[in-house]
């Protein structure tokens, strides 16, 4: 009986972890794009500098290598443009900047983020108040 | 660029090989750009390290970069590649290896279809497994299931390439020679079939020699193509072996030509 209970407990913990992992991956995926676009808003940045900025945010970047493919995809979708600039420290470097459509998209995303953030925090606060 | 220790170079090379393997299935991505991004990132991360940079420092950078697979997101892969990638999640995932060997063995049982359908199919699965894994070193014991169809397929194709044109040449020359046997022997060889056929075999010998030396010469120039075609056994067809084939081919060509000419000069009227 105790063995079955322990086993059930492990299964539930495993399922819990899996659910959380999937959820966190989805949140991170969307947030990473949002943060990358915000990082290069109003300036052009070298790929490595974008990575350095974002890796300091807890829980956002699991593998630093995930940022470069997202940058490439944003570039293919026309939200981000690149310019090659000479570097004193080595070979020419690729700098990323927002395109006009990228800027428009980011404005929409920020507006949406604000709405959803306020809504989510209200729900969490309400639940916390009810709990106490 | 920082000076790297040998083991550090190997670490990077190993990582890059895995990225390249993953990139093979994603034509919409710029492989050179991705490789450049990785190189630049590693270089920047190692800027503060003392030279020569050791394997530990490089491993740390690569771990922070994340798994090589993440450089090519799943949505960038073609549908067939997605299936294969899902079935080969790592060295402990034997599913593709089992499928590969099952296709090979099943085809062998129903023999007539084996060569034309199941063998190429199992060979294709084997190559895909190698490609997804990032090379034979990543497969460990799975090689025992993956190599048999590859070896058999390469041997059959190799025999067809090396001997096929030769058999076709022998067949057509003999057919032609038989057709004009009486007329030519009567006209030029005083009715002697013996010298006539010696000359015919001289032509066949020279033709075989010409084909083998041409083939060896081509493969010597295109060794990279050969490596790709018979991956991962390209290293078994060394330049030394190809030179040997060239020498054999040239010897046959010269001896066949000389023999044919001597017979014509000595016995033909």
Secondary-structure-derived class of chain A: alpha+beta
Note the overall shape of chain B: elongated
How would you describe the oligomerization state of the chains in this entry?
heterodimer
Identify the most extensive interface between protein chains: A-B, 17 and 20 residues
Q: How many strands, what sense, and barrel or not for the largest sheet of chain B?
A: none
Unreliable spans of chain A:
none
Shape of chain A: extended
Provide a count of the helices of chain B: 11
- Largest beta-sheet details of chain A: 3 strands, antiparallel
Beta-strand residue fraction of chain B: under 5%
User: How many β strands of chain B by DSSP?
Assistant: 0
Find the count of extended strands of chain A (DSSP E, 2+ residues): 3
N-end to C-end Cα span of chain B:
76 Å
Lateral arrangement of strands in the main beta sheet of chain A: 1-3-2
Overview of the molecule:
The complex is a heterodimer of chains A (132) and B (269). Chain A contains four helices and three strands. With 132 residues, chain A is of the alpha+beta class. Chain A has a three-stranded antiparallel sheet. In chain A, 17% of the residues are buried. Chain B has 269 residues and is mainly alpha-helical. Helix content of chain B is 74%, strand content 0%. In chain B, helix 5 (95-109) packs parallel to helix 7 (143-179) and helix 9 (193-221) packs antiparallel against helix 11. Chain B is elongated, with a radius of gyration of 27 Å. Chain B starts with 5 loop residues before the first helix and ends with a helix. Chain A binds chain B through residues 47-48, 51, 55, 62-66, 68-69, 72-73, 76, 90-91, 93, and chain B through 1, 28-30, 33-34, 37-38, 40-41, 43-44, 64-67, 70-73.
Write the layout of secondary structure elements.
The complex is a heterodimer of chains A (132) and B (269).
Chain A: H1 2-39, E1 45-46, H2 47-54, H3 67-76, E2 80-87, E3 90-98, H4 100-131
Antiparallel strand pairs in A: 1-3, 2-3
Chain B: H1 6-23, H2 31-45, H3 55-65, H4 79-86, H5 95-109, H6 111-133, H7 143-179, H8 181-188, H9 193-221, H10 223-229, H11 239-267
């Amino acid at each position: 009986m105790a063995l079955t209970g322990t086993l059930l407990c492990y299964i539930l913990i495993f399922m819990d972890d899996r659910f959380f992992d999937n959820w966190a991956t989805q949140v991170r995926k969307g947030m990473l794009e949002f943060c990358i676009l915000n990082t290069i808003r109003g300036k052009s940045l070298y790929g490595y500098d974008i990575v350095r900025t974002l890796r300091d945010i807890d829980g956002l970047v699991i593998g630093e290598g995930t940022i470069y493919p997202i940058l490439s995809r944003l570039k293919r979708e026309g939200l981000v443009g690149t310019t090659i600039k000479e570097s004193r420290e080595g070979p020419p470097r690729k700098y990323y900047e927002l395109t006009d459509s990228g800027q428009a998209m980011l404005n929409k995303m920020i507006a949406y983020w604000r709405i959803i953030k306020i809504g989510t925090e209200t729900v969490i606060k309400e639940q916390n108040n009810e709990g106490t | 660029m920082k000076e790297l220790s040998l083991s550090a170079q190997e670490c990077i090379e190993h990582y890059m090989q895995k990225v390249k393997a993953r990139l093979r299935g994603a034509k919409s991505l710029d492989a050179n750009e991705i490789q450049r991004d990785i190189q630049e990132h590693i270089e920047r991360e190692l800027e503060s390290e003392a030279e020569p940079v050791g394997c530990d420092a490089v491993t740390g950078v690569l771990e922070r970069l994340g798994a090589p697979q993440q450089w090519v997101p799943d949505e960038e892969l073609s549908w067939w590649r997605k299936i294969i990638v899902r079935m080969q999640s790592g060295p402990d995932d034997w599913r593709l290896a089992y499928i590969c060997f099952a296709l090979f063995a099943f085809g062998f049982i129903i023999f007539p279809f084996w060569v034309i359908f199941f063998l190429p199919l199992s060979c294709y699965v084997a190559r895909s497994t190698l490609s997804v894994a990032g090379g034979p070193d990543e497969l460990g014991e799975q090689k025992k299931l993956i190599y048999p169809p590859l070896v058999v397929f390469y041997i059959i194709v190799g025999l067809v390439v090396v001997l096929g044109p030769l058999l076709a040449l022998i067949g057509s020359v003999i057919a032609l020679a038989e057709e004009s046997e009486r007329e030519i022997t009567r006209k030029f060889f005083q009715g002697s079939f013996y010298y006539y056929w010696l000359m015919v075999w001289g032509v066949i010998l020279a033709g075989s020699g010409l084909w083998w030396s041409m083939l060896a010469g081509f493969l010597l120039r295109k060794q990279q193509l050969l490596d790709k075609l018979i991956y991962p056994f390209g290293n078994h067809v060394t330049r030394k072996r190809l030179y040997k084939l060239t020498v054999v081919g040239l010897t046959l060509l010269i001896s066949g030509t000389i023999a044919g000419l001597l017979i014509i000069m000595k016995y033909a009227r």
